[in-house]
Design brief:
elongated; five-stranded antiparallel sheet; alpha/beta; Immunoglobulin-like; 15 helices; about 20% strand; single chain
Length: about 675
């Protein structure tokens, strides 16, 4: 070999990696351009390091050596073009090839102790070939010229519990697509599947303006790690550290994050640490043994998704995944991670029939290694990253997901409220005639709303696989669907919990999301769709501007039902409160296609009320049944309150009312 590389990786780093304590193993494993000395001679090339402790032999293979073929044509004295690597006592294989540089395409040829040979992608590579090719690509991940100091400083001091968090979830391959040169718009529409992907930079420049206009606080980008199949949406990962080449390079993704931060928008990465794809070039059976997964077939195989589960009890697996999380925070300035399928990491019997092979060492079905991993993950992130968001997609009633580990919790910041989502989406799909029998679908969530710190998700999973789009879920004719969805969105924004909406929900496509083509942006030319988008924008800005909608999201001090039991009229009324007792909003939501004129609503304070938002406003596509006059308090009671107001409610109409106290009126008139 031209360069001695035995001491490139220090022993302390290796020990931390093996025992699950490494938080930056991507800095010494994988491939990277390297300069060193061979005797007195300076040499440059690429250094390769891979963890494969059970392999009999490992070689670096690529075009530079005929993909590992022992052809004399590829051999040059002193350049190691045969690609052989040296093994450390712990099982890390290291090799250096002089003359290679960034952009080199390669794989590892693994020879097992049974003599089997196969090619594997580098688990720690930063870049990969564009699918369907699966080789790794050497990438020089240099320091990025960030311009987000102001954002990072503000983020570090933010208190998300008492701040607005409104997330726009998007898929980079189908938010928007490029154009096919030489085709007319009509022809392009027929070839939508063939439209090219946009680069992260192109997406960033357009999305930043759109998100600012719409009033979202964060974007959540669906998995960005390399994956072989478009249809997996990124959830069946091949290479965890490799930014998918579909949309550009790692620096292109950094540009995207930087652009969002410059515009005051946070970025959350969707992350999948529970399971991985079983494609031959990936982690599955990596060195001829179950290196990343469990030796137990039932625990290893994820039959639901056709993937393999990580063995989260193994030290090197923890180091691999926790370092991956740190990689996104440190190298890409992520503001948070949405952790996919947490339940799959917590229970061996998730989506499986319970059997003895799934039991843990104590006889239960809980994944002890997975529980410990979640706690260690969150502790590590909170210790090393200023004020991160760690959001769990956990679909059961597992207790204390968002409580700290010292209390027995898992330590996440927020948890998706899947119960609220399932119940309320079922409700809006029902014929209003029978909704009285399912009234609790809209109210039951308040029984547990503060057991965790929740995000209310209307995610991509709810608009695919025959579940219908959000608009098409709503019962009724064309007009009623739009009215119902506006009213539902109002209920969601008023309900305690942070918010998440999948792209497209803001303008209401009738068709489900299709990952293989861009959203139906052409629908914005149609008034109903564009006016729905304008209503979502108005709701978003109202949410950001009104403290009562987010300042007390974690206790009943911030919420009060006015009437939770008006099932015969399908009406829901409640109050959201801030820390200032004079600062609150009254929500009245009619989920019935019948107008109510002069409807009496109990009020929490004897004062005047002003309508500040109405879902039935003509500007949003409604019939324009409004409460234009100031609503005067009535001395007779309603809804168990001593006083009331009378207002008009449109069919499927929702109104948001703000109190007008005498002192504020005096100040207002004085200013005039």
């Amino acid at each position: 070999m031209a360069v001695c590389v035995k001491n490139v990786i220090d022993n302390d780093s290796v020990q931390k990696f093996m025992y699950g304590d490494s938080i930056d193993c991507y800095k010494f494993l994988g491939s990277r351009p390297y300069c060193g000395k061979s005797g007195r001679k300076k040499v440059s090339g690429v250094l390769f390091s891979v963890w494969a402790p059970s392999a009999k032999n490992v070689r670096i293979a690529g075009d530079f050596n005929g993909w590992g073929k022992a052809d004399p044509y590829f051999l040059e004295a002193g350049r190691n073009l045969e690609g052989y690597m040296e093994r450390s006592p712990e099982g890390i294989w290291t090799g250096f090839i002089e003359g290679l540089s960034a952009g080199t395409v390669y794989k590892y040829e693994i020879t097992t102790h049974t003599g089997e040979r196969f090619l594997k992608a580098d688990p720690m590579c930063y870049s990969s070939e564009l699918r369907p090719n699966t080789a790794s690509v050497v990438y020089d991940l240099k320091e990025y010229d960030w311009n987000d100091d102001e954002w990072m400083k503000v983020r570090a001091s933010a208190n998300y519990m008492v701040s607005p968090v409104n997330i726009y979830e998007f898929h980079a391959g189908s938010w928007k697509r490029g154009v096919i040169e030489g085709m007319s718009p009509e022809e392009s529409e027929k070839h939508a599947v063939d439209e090219p992907f946009l680069n992260y930079r192109e997406i960033a420049d357009e999305m930043a303006d759109y998100i600012k206009e719409m009033g979202y606080t964060h974007v959540e980008i669906m998995p960005v790690s390399e994956h072989p199949l478009d249809a997996s949406w990124g959830y069946q990962t091949l290479c965890y550290y490799s930014i998918t080449s579909r949309y550009g390079t790692p620096d292109d993704l950094r540009y995207f994050v930087n652009k969002m931060h410059e515009n005051g928008i946070g970025v959350i990465f969707d992350w999948v640490p529970g399971h991985f794809c079983k494609d031959a070039p990936g982690l599955y059976n990596f060195d001829g043994t179950w290196l990343y997964e469990s030796e137990n077939t039932m625990k290893r195989e994820n039959f639901q998704w056709g993937t393999a589960n990580f063995d989260l009890g193994k030290g090197h697996v923890r180091s691999f995944l926790i370092s991956n999380a740190m990689y996104f925070f440190k190298e890409f300035h992520a503001d948070g991670l949405r952790v996919d399928a947490v339940t799959n990491m917590l229970r061996y019997d998730y989506a499986k029939e319970p059997c003895d092979a799934l039991r843990n060492q104590y006889g239960g079905f809980e994944n002890v290694g997975g529980i410990d991993f979640c706690r260690k993950l969150n502790y590590t992130i909170y210790t090393n990253v200023p004020n991160p968001l760690m959001i769990a997609e956990e679909s059961t009633a597992w207790p204390m997901v968002t409580k700290p580990a010292f209390m027995g919790g898992l330590g996440f910041t927020f948890k998706w409220n899947m119960g609220w989502m399932n119940d309320t989406l079922e409700y809006i799909s029902l014929d209003p005639v029978v909704r009285k029998d399912y009234h609790e679908k809209m109210t039951f969530s308040m029984m547990y709303a503060f057991a965790e710190n929740y995000v209310l998700p209307l995610s991509h999973d709810e608009v695919v696989h025959g579940k219908k789009s959000l608009l098409d879920k709503c019962f009724g004719d064309y007009e009623q669907k739009f009215a119902c969805l506006r009213s539902y969105y109002t209920f969601m924004m008023g309900h305690p919990g942070k918010k998440l909406m999948f792209m497209g929900g803001e303008f209401g496509p009738f068709m489900e999301w299709r990952f293989y083509e861009q959203l139906e942006w052409k629908l914005r030319k149609y008034p109903k769709h564009e006016m729905l988008r304008e209503y979502v924008k108005a709701l978003n800005h109202l949410y950001r501007n009104e403290k009562s909608m987010w300042e007390i999201d974690d206790s009943y001090d911030g919420f009060e039902w006015i009437n939770a039991d008006d099932k015969w009229r399908n009406i829901f009324s409640f109050v959201r409160k801030s820390k200032d007792p004079d600062d609150f909003l009254l929500f009245v939501v009619n989920m019935c296609p019948v107008a109510y004129w002069g409807h009496s609503v109990g009020i929490p304070r004897f004062t005047e009320y002003e309508e500040i938002l109405c879902s039935d406003s003509g500007q949003f596509g409604g019939t324009d049944i409004r409460n234009r006059e100031i609503l005067k308090p009535q001395p007779h009671g309603a809804d168990g309150k001593r006083f009331s107001i009378k207002l008009d409610l449109a069919p499927y109409g929702a109104v948001v009312l703000k109190p007008r106290f005498r002192k504020s009126l005096i100040k207002e008139n004085g200013n005039k």
